[in-house]
Write a structure and sequence with these properties.
Blueprint lengths: L2 H25 L2 H41 L2 H33 L25 H8 L4 H6 L3 H17 L2 H26 L2 H16 L2 H5 L1 H25 L4 H7 L1 H10 L6 H11 L3 H14 L2 H17 L6 H14 L9 H12 L8 H4 L2 H27 L17 H11 L1
Helix pairs in contact: 1-8, 1-12, 2-6, 2-7, 2-8, 2-14, 3-10, 3-14, 3-15, 3-16, 3-19, 10-15, 10-19, 12-19, 13-14, 13-19, 14-19, 15-17, 15-19
Length: about 425
């Protein structure tokens, strides 16, 4: 199935899902709608399980091969430092933007939410942040366990060590393993293509189930809060894409068109992970070299979830406003720094950000029961922030590629290194995938 055809099918699935969900919610009994939503969600669960089945071997194979191809520790360190710098800047911008917009628009003002004793305690369990907790979460005790639980950060750490070790043992000794891993990359991308055939049906199931059970009224009743948050995401898109245009050039628009399908898939499934294979392929079709894209993108899934980070800062201040709790400028700056740390390693799966929000509320003595205010609309907000995560990771990979001179896309600024040999090699890889 061609990319454009798949995109069209996903959009059709979205539209039909909204219509079917609306009809069920409007004309069927609540019991029937609830049963439908429960049963049809099995399709979504199957699709997301298939995606998670692919993610671990795809990340390991692409990241290890990408690192090994860099050749030496100096190149790896340079690319990693540039990647981390860009992601830290993007994280700071997203969290700061969330704080600024929520303070200007005051969506929580006038709600006067009063937390009952013990309310919200079972919604989500806050996890106190400490450096020890972060390290314990980041370093795997077993790669098999990390793959079984789809802990992306742990998989990335293992892959970095394995890639560096492969590069260190020399090309001759590493060749057999590299050949297997390169074959695994092509195998997993082919498998991904088969899994993606189920995407339109999954989109229909997810949207129709949500609308059938909750109805369109939930969008109207919380429209102001949702509209203001989506405004924040829109501004974040403008800022990040604008920076990319300034640094790369007008070809950025071609990049945004290319990641339209993965972003749409992330939006409709509320999962950044679902868009990983498509984003990787779109980056290579855009012109980012394989070794840069396969290195930067997996790291971005742990360190560059800017949509989720903007939501965390926006949601925490919204709950504080709803509870009539005023936070000083110093407290909000402290919150920004805390979120810069606690958001790292956040999984690209639905509702992972609620754990970070709960932990942040606890740090500033804001009632955790305020999470109740978010629960009704969080699935709709998760759609937007998942798509934003995909966009930011793609932009980050393109910027690192441009910075390294490893980009060969038409219409981009500057002359890349080794431009004579690279395009033919890239075209061969892109066509094969």
């Amino acid at each position: 199935m061609k990319s454009m055809n798949l995109t069209t099918m996903i959009v059709l699935g979205l539209i039909i899902g909204i219509i079917v969900g609306f009809l069920l919610n409007s004309f069927a009994s609540p019991e029937v709608s609830s049963v439908y939503a429960k049963d049809i969600s099995i399709i979504t669960d199957i699709f997301l399980r298939l995606i998670k089945m692919i993610i671990a071997p795809l990340i390991i194979s692409t990241l290890v091969v990408g690192i090994a191809k860099m050749g030496d520790a100096k190149t790896l360190g340079r690319v990693f430092s540039k990647t981390l710098f860009l992601f830290i800047c993007a994280s700071f911008i997203s969290i700061l933007l969330g704080l600024v917009i929520v303070n200007i628009l005051q969506p929580g003002a006038g709600i006067n939410f009063v937390a009952e004793a013990g309310a919200g305690a079972e919604i989500v369990k806050p996890v106190p942040f400490s450096f020890k907790v972060f390290i314990s979460h980041a370093i795997p005790t077993s790669i098999v366990d990390a793959m079984a639980r789809n802990e992306i950060l742990q998989i990335v750490v293992f892959s970095i060590f394995m890639g560096v070790s492969l590069s260190a043992i020399g090309e001759e000794k590493a060749a057999p393993i590299m050949k297997v891993l390169e074959s695994l990359v092509y195998l997993m991308l082919k498998l991904t293509g088969y899994v993606m055939l189920f995407a339109p049906l999954t989109v229909f199931a997810a949207i129709s189930a949500m609308i059938a059970e909750r109805g369109l009224a939930v969008l109207v009743s919380a429209g102001i809060f949702m509209g203001e948050f989506y405004l924040t995401l829109g501004l974040l898109w403008v800022i990040l894409i604008g920076c990319c245009v300034l640094l790369i050039g007008r070809c950025t628009l071609r990049l945004i068109r290319g990641i339209g399908e993965p972003a749409l898939l992330a939006f409709t499934t509320s999962s950044s992970e679902a868009a990983f294979p498509g984003t990787l392929q779109s980056l290579e079709e855009f012109g980012v070299s394989n070794k840069i894209a396969s290195f930067v993108l997996p790291i971005g899934y742990s360190f560059n979830l800017v949509g989720s980070m903007a939501y965390c800062s926006f949601a925490v201040i919204f709950i504080a406003q709803a509870c009539n709790i005023e936070l000083t400028m110093g407290e909000q700056i402290t919150m920004l720094l805390i979120l810069m740390l606690t958001s790292k390693g956040m999984a690209g799966v639905p509702r992972a950000s609620l754990v970070v929000i709960a932990a942040t509320l606890n740090q500033f003595n804001i009632p955790e029961a305020g999470l109740i205010l978010l629960m009704g609309v969080d699935p709709f907000l998760d759609m937007g922030r998942s798509a934003t995560n995909v966009m930011s990771n793609a932009v980050g990979a393109a910027l690192v590629g441009r910075w390294e001179g490893e980009h060969y896309g038409e219409g981009c600024r500057g002359k890349p290194k080794a431009v004579e040999a690279a395009p033919e090699q890239f075209v061969t890889e892109a066509q094969a995938k």
